[in-house]
Specification:
Layout (H helix, E strand, L loop, with lengths): L16 H26 L26 H7 L25 H5 L51 H16 L3 H12 L9 H19 L9 E4 L6 H7 L4 H7 L14 E4 L4 E6 L4 E6 L2 E7 L2 E2 L8 E9 L3 E2 L5 E2 L11 E7 L11 E3 L10 E3 L3 E2 L2 H10 L5 E5 L1
Parallel strand pairs: 3-14, 6-12, 11-13
Antiparallel strand pairs: 1-2, 3-4, 4-5, 7-10, 7-14, 8-9, 10-11
Length: about 400
């Protein structure tokens, strides 16, 4: 039988390498073709119409609420008060200069302009520039102090009326110590609700008695003392010893401001401290205490939209004729109509560990006394200039200040 040579083997019995490569290539091509055919028939065909994607939920609006701090701060960057707080704080001026506390916390301008009233259908109005005399979105509808209603019992009313009469009579007779004692008796009556109209009337009598005594250099019994000057003493040493101020000692004793010479044996009338201040935001009052006894009560204005913080402070510095440092970095000099700080500024520094920066706040006067008892500032406490001038003289630096609701 004839031998068939398939050329897979070489004549010498060794494998034909070229033929082997050809065979492997043929096998690979056949397997690849089969695989493509299987894939083609198994994948479902598309009719050319794109598949419908599920509808996405409507995108939430990213518009900030009208009373958002960022919106309010952006719209109020014209020259007005601070302070907190921002509270992106302004750079603090060098010692002896007044920051605008209200520049640290607020957004109105030195002209105290307020934004226009916006309708619910047009919240974008909140981003417009403030318009003087118009409320801000989010401001309270009724912006006034809390004055609790009280009904004095009929069996108490006669004695209360008699105490008011005694206080007023003592004031008329310039017996200020007796007037203050009668007023405190009314304030201590359990039927008189704090910050009610009766309480405020008695507080006004107490304040008038003490401050008139201060203005007229009158002695106030145990509240004042006589100090004979000894060798080596100075006004600053006496002020530190009695927790008062050099200004107060000189005022009581009719000493010229620039006279710093103490004469041995001279008897000085001194009203010693310590002093402290309590500010009640809802009642819109500042209470001044002397040795833990209520000494005077003043009406105040506070920050709008809750910008006045509830916290503890101390008076870190006292500035007369303060310049106002605007949010944008400009300075409005004292005496400029655009400067909202009045004649005095008592700078506040936080104590303890507050939960946020509390810089730039203070107690200061105002050019517009209609601000008093209202919430219009950027966080600072506003007082009538005549009232804050008395605080400036009476209370020393490091006096504690607590702000409560």
């Amino acid at each position: 039988m004839a031998k068939i040579d398939y050329e897979f083997d070489q004549g010498d019995g060794r494998p034909n390498k070229a033929g082997m490569r050809l065979r492997l290539a043929a096998i690979f091509i056949v397997v690849a073709a089969l695989t493509c055919a299987i894939v083609y028939f198994l994948i479902p065909k598309s009719d050319g119409t794109p598949e419908e994607l599920p509808a996405l939920p409507p995108e939430e609006s990213t518009t900030l609420p009208a009373d958002d701090e960022n919106v309010r701060e952006a719209e109020s960057r014209d020259p007005v008060e601070v302070s907190p707080g921002t509270e992106s704080e302004l750079p603090q001026p060098a010692d002896g200069q007044s920051p605008d506390p209200e520049t640290t916390v607020e957004e109105t301008s030195g002209t105290e302009e307020t934004p226009p009233e916006a309708s619910p259908e047009q919240p974008e109005e909140a981003t417009q520039l403030p318009e003087k005399g118009k409320p801000w979105i989010g401001d309270p509808i009724i912006d006034r102090p809390d004055v609790p209603k009280t009904d004095i019992p009929t069996d108490v009313k006669p004695s209360l009326d008699a105490a008011f009469t005694r206080a007023e009579t003592s004031l008329g007779e310039k017996n200020f110590a007796a007037a203050a004692e009668s007023a405190r008796a009314i304030l201590g009556n359990s039927s008189v609700i704090p910050y009610s109209s009766e309480w405020r009337q008695a507080a006004a009598l107490l304040t008038e008695a003490n401050l008139t005594a201060f203005e007229t250099r009158a002695e106030m019994g145990d509240s004042t003392l006589i100090h004979p000057v000894r060798p080596g003493e100075s006004y600053s040493a006496l002020a530190a010893k009695y927790h008062t101020t050099i200004d107060a000692i000189k005022h009581y004793n009719r000493v010229p401001e620039k006279d710093n010479i103490l004469r041995i044996g001279k008897k000085l009338l001194i009203h010693p401290g310590p002093w402290k201040i309590m500010i009640h935001k809802n009642a819109r009052v500042l209470e001044l205490y002397n040795r833990d006894t209520l000494y005077a009560v003043f009406d105040v204005g506070i920050g709008r939209l809750g910008k006045t913080p509830t916290a503890k402070f101390v008076i870190s510095s006292k500035l007369r004729n303060p310049d106002w440092y605007m949010p944008g970095g400009g300075v409005v000099k004292y005496g400029d109509p655009e400067n909202p700080l009045g004649n005095y500024f008592l700078k506040l520094a936080p104590t303890g560990s507050p939960d946020r920066p509390l810089l730039g706040y203070g107690i200061h006067g105002t050019q517009d006394e209609s601000d008093i008892t209202r919430s219009l500032s950027n966080g600072c406490i506003r007082m009538r200039d005549a009232d804050v001038s008395k605080l400036y003289i009476i209370i020393p630096a490091r006096t504690p200040v607590e702000i409560v609701e």
